[in-house]
Amino acid sequence: MHEMSLAEGILRQVEATARREAARRVTRVILEIGALASVEIEALRFCFDAAARDTLAATAQLEIRVLPGRGWCMLCAQSTPLAALAAPCPRCGSFQVQPVSGMEMRIKEIEIE
Fold this sequence. Notes:
Structural class: alpha+beta
CATH architecture of one domain: 2-Layer Sandwich
Number of helices: 2
Largest sheet: 3 strands, mixed
Radius of gyration: 17 Å
Shape: elongated
């Protein structure tokens, strides 16, 4: 399960930011995760909660915003919604679709006290 290593990496960055700002605790963390990023959201939530114990983010609320996937269909020569990495173009059915967004994962906001 790579979600645990993702959660640990997120927490390292969150704690480093909180310490740099002399925070007493982290109250909320907002993540943006692309729908094509191959991240199981509920597993990430579970791992974040487990990894956050005994840290500045122990009681932090985790908010996850899922960003839609988009691809470029080489046959249609158009941008199109993309539900999965290996999904065909919803317009023409071609599998020649290059993902262009929806694979990202970033910490959008950290709220601290």
